[in-house]
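Reviewers of the previous submission asked for a worked example of the structure-prediction workflow described in the proposal, so we include one complete record here. The input consisted solely of the amino acid sequence. No template or homolog information was supplied to the procedure at any stage.
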Amino acid sequence: MRVSGVITAINEAPTIREVLRAAKPFVSELIVVDGRSSDGTPEIAREEGAWVLQDNGRGKGEATRLGIEAASGELVLIMTADGSDDYASIPHLLEPLFKGRADLVVGSRYLGGSEELSITLVQLIRSMGNISLNVLINWRWRVQLSDVLNGFRAMRRDAALGLGLSEDSAAIEVEMVVKALRRGLKVINIPTHEFARRYGETRLQVWREGAKIYWCTLRHLL
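From that input alone, the workflow returned the following structure tokens.
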């Protein structure tokens, strides 16, 4: 099966080349969905042989959907552009899909560790929110997931297209999981390490995105 690599990016010039080169050995095509970067990110991506799409500025969810729709591979590898993903885990994400043991594989920072976690109010809120979502989802669908919000993941493209994904924000990550479970698809976690972002700051607005993520989860739980 062919694999399409989908990377969403906004002003990630310091790391986008590294990310694309790390993914290249495992994929048949690279798709960068760019959020109208002003630092040369699209140009660097094209130099590395990636197909660059422009999103419509609605958020990470919209960019992810555009990448999945544009992909030509049977499998889709979804990565971040900030260099925080554990590149060595790429084959481990893809293996269960190749072997038919899963439809969606999500990297788990709670199993593999994270350098982004720290004892700050924001990080505590993020961790508590993620853990509580896992508890709710595990209870509702009788599964044993440890991290439903990690954007480092891989999925069968036909399965992803069949979910009717609609979230424009980062809530697409939990939407993808709960809709897959509702349709009886196999969702698993594998351990992956999260490295600290080396340049810039995350654009995730914890309060706003957190509310969207919780609302998305509760809608599907009910």
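The chain has one domain: 3-221. We consider this example representative of the routine output the project will generate in years two and three.
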